[in-house]
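Hello Y.,

Per our agreement to keep a running log of every chain we model this quarter, I'm adding this entry. I've kept the format consistent with earlier entries: sequence first, then predicted structure.
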Amino acid sequence: MKFSFNKIKYKHILNIERLEINENAVAIVGKSGCGKSTLLRIMANIISLDSGDYLIDDININDYNAVSFRRIVTLMNQKPIIYFGSVKDNIVIGMLYQNKTTPDDKKITDLLNAFNINCTLESSAKSLSLGEQQRICMIRSLLLQSKVYLLDEPTSSLDKETEDAAMTTFFDTAKSIGSQVIFVTHNPIIAEKYAERIITVEGGMVCEYP
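Predicted structure for the entry above:
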């Protein structure tokens, strides 16, 4: 999908003259507080612009049906959203909200193994480490098979080796289902390895783009 921004402003945080994103794998980088996460939340239509135009595939964001939009674009926050209940409950909850058929236990177990999460389907999701909870959210997101994934530092609580393995699994799966991935990261190695394009945000402005 093509995300287009023209003369957008949001409070004192973002002031972007022009930006277009249509690549399949894009990293957004920059120092803490520069506006990376705010830009991602605007893309996810979680927050609204003060001024300017935001279009997706040349359609204004305000013309999208909110429910339909949530089925197309999935945002994964840096802080994992974990509900009370089992690991399985947390993995399938998104599919239940979207009235999709949930996978069998074997598929869920295979995904847990692929993301190196050592637990059972009945384990309490709240008992997992922060890094394991982040990976549970990655699995939950992938099962939705969204057209676009917006990831806000999805592996920030992982060590370098586990982070790389998780990102490899996520991107391989996303590619296999034809999904676009736009992700915020502080890790330049991850950005270079997985992104076709790297967008730098500095002081609320895009300071490099093709």
